[in-house]
Amino acid sequence: MVKKLKMHRFISLTFLLIWGMTLFGQMPKSAKSPHGKGLHLECSECHDPNGWKVRAMTTFNHDKRTHFPLKGQHKMLDCRKCHPTLVFNEAKSDCNSCHTDVHQQTVGNDCQRCHNTSSWLVTNIKQIHQQKGFALVGAHAAADCSRCHKAASQLQFENMHTDCYACHYQVYESSTIKQFGQNATHRSLGFNTDCNRCHNMVGRSWSYNGKGFEHGFFPLKGGHANLTCDQCHWDGFNTKLSPECSSCHGTYTASQKVPAHETVFKSHECSECHTYLGWNVVKFKNHKNWRDKSKHDGKGCLECHDNNDTWKPDCRKCHNFDY
Description:
- Among the domains are: 133-240, no CATH class; 247-317, no CATH class.
- Helices cover 25% and strands 5% of the residues.
- The chain is built from eleven helices and four strands.
- Strand 3 (274-275) and strand 4 form a beta hairpin.
């Protein structure tokens, strides 16, 4: 009887042991995780072994274990701000899933073109305009955003035309240019709306005295810098002007002041002696070697040459000696 009782107890304990192993050993492996199927981590990486409470200092590395590194302001956020449920891979990584688009789709969905994770402030405005094909140079560099982006105060930046006329049409239609002593508009003179043909964006004004004006093959420098258009284009802008000095300056005034221009210098080009810096900046190359070997370098022409037709030097003007 005693042997049968002992055998019964042994069988019961063995059954309980097997049942306990099944209950506490196998069940967790088949239990459904509250974090979904996508999270493959040891529970101890986040939870305390004494309970399900999340560790204050988790060993989970968000930068290496996910495609969304925690940088800037994201480092300071509570997990629940981005992960409202326990299924962590349901969180979206695009900005609009968490942040309201205050621009109302006027600048697209790529927030990182303008913003970064440290601040919403935009610090690369010039680079953004450069990438979009409209560099902020000249007067545009100091212009208020609302001058071009009418809804900028609502943080909306609609696509807009980048041609000059789209913004400056009033200047084109109303500003005047002198022709034959009369004021004429751009339109009446036949200028089209491609402002870049005459003006450049680097200039800080529409002035045509060379500060904001692209004059192409004939740079407006030196003595030409402060001229008004009608001083050269006196008969309009449709006539092509010659770049030769004599086409504007002639020989009459020069001959009056220095008659030798009509004799000994007549076969020479103006540029052989003069530069665009001014008529008084004179360097005559034919006697350069002679001057370099003497103490005469730096002297003005009239200090050695009489103002006559021969233009021969008169040494006695400076030197009191006999030959």
